[in-house]
Design brief:
Blueprint: H1 9-38, H2 43-62, H3 73-89, E1 103-104, E2 109-110, H4 112-130, H5 138-157, H6 162-179, H7 183-202, H8 205-215, H9 226-238, H10 263-296, H11 300-324, H12 342-351
Antiparallel strand pairs: 1-2
Helix pairs in contact: 1-2, 1-10, 2-12, 3-4, 3-5, 4-5, 4-6, 4-11, 4-12, 5-6, 6-11, 9-10, 10-11
Length: 366
């Protein structure tokens, strides 16, 4: 009988610590706007607390879950079909800021693109295990895996949400290359993808304007460059040690989306370079323990599943931080575990947990 392993304490601590830190920072970043919008400074932090609680429950339940149960054709393709239907369903709901990314219900909203990351990871792990020994076969392995990725990414692009679509492409690249795909095949796929992305940037007016703004945000500090400029001011104001918790100024209705997409700017302003680097180091710890788990997984499915999950979380964190630091064009992608919002938080914690009576591809229970 395979022995039952104890949870990975480092990974568990990193996951829980980031989530709880996120609750604290959401309060600091949202109190002012919550007071203005709802007359209650605790509005956003209370909702975040509920989502964190749900996330913890999901995590604890899935720590007892045997991930091998995911290695089922009905589960894999059923999840893909459900993810595809939800991505199509967003167009039946009203747009937010010109984009159809949310399924809006009375008391909550759901972002289906978050589910698509999990669906893609599980599919790739399942499919590439079935193709063991045929990893270099272009038509039997690379093309089918690439088609599914392009289908999900394409539906996300037309929402429009190019950033999340690129996250799916990155997950595909990392997982299929680790499985043994040829660099030649990846290069052949990269050429049309790069052409397509270039076309989406150049021939879509608002994306082109965003690219121009990215190159010089200070050229239009009161217009297109306003958000990035306010983010850089916040980060610069923090200095090495920060202004102190809840003492930040840019969140006072200067920095848009301070409690969600740009919460790292608030962290840097209030906790300084030290606080910002601490957050990055914790994600580094998460990456280390995640890759370690993938390498120690007892089977190919577990290894690829672990790697895909870790890639989806850490890559998104690096993408978000790069946007806040103006190293990438502005894009509405939240910081995992920390940014306000249940659609990102609960699926992320759900992706992070499952266990088996052996080495497991779960986040805190790896």
């Amino acid at each position: 009988m395979a022995r039952k392993l104890a949870p990975d304490k480092w990974l568990f601590a990193a996951t829980v610590g980031l989530a709880l830190f996120g609750v604290v920072m959401v309060y600091s970043a949202s109190a002012m706007i919550a007071q203005k919008e709802d007359g209650n400074q605790f509005y956003y932090v209370l909702k975040q607390g509920v989502w964190v609680g749900i996330g913890f429950i999901v995590m604890l339940l899935k720590m007892q879950f045997n991930y091998q149960q995911l290695k089922n054709r009905r589960v894999v393709y059923g999840l893909l079909a459900f993810s595809t239907m939800t991505l199509l369903s967003v167009f039946a709901f009203t747009a937010s800021n010109g984009a159809h990314r949310w399924m809006k219900f009375r008391f909550f909203s759901v972002q289906p693109s978050e589910l698509s990351k999990l669906a893609l990871v599980i599919f790739l792990a399942y499919f590439l295990e079935k193709r063991a020994g045929e990893e270099g076969d272009f038509w039997r392995t690379f093309i089918p895996a690439g088609f599914v990725t392009c289908l999900l990414a394409g539906l996300i692009v037309i929402e429009p949400d190019l950033g999340t679509a690129l996250m799916l492409a990155l997950i595909f690249t990392v997982v299929i290359y680790t499985a043994g795909a040829r660099l030649l095949h990846l290069g052949m796929a990269a050429a049309p993808v790069l052409l397509g992305v270039t076309g989406l940037l150049i021939f879509v007016p608002w994306r082109l304007k965003r690219m121009i703004t990215f190159l010089d945000p200070w050229a239009d500090p009161q217009g297109g460059g306003f958000q990035v400029v306010q983010s850089l001011i916040a980060i610069g104001s923090g200095g090495p040690n920060g202004l102190g918790f809840a003492q930040g100024k840019q969140k006072m209705l200067f920095l848009p989306f301070a409690h969600s997409d740009f919460i790292f700017a608030v962290v840097s302003e209030e906790l300084g370079l030290v606080g910002g680097l601490a957050v990055i180091l914790v994600f580094g710890l998460f990456l280390w323990r995640g890759v370690r788990t993938a390498l120690l997984a007892p089977d190919r499915f577990g290894m690829l599943l672990s790697l895909g999950i870790v890639t989806s979380i850490v890559a998104q964190a690096l993408f978000n931080i790069s946007v806040v630091l103006s190293m990438l064009p502005t894009k509405g992608i939240p910081l995992p575990f920390i940014s306000y919002g249940g659609s990102s938080l609960v699926p992320t914690r759900g992706r992070c947990t499952s266990r088996r009576r052996s080495r497991s591809p779960s986040c805190p229970s790896w």
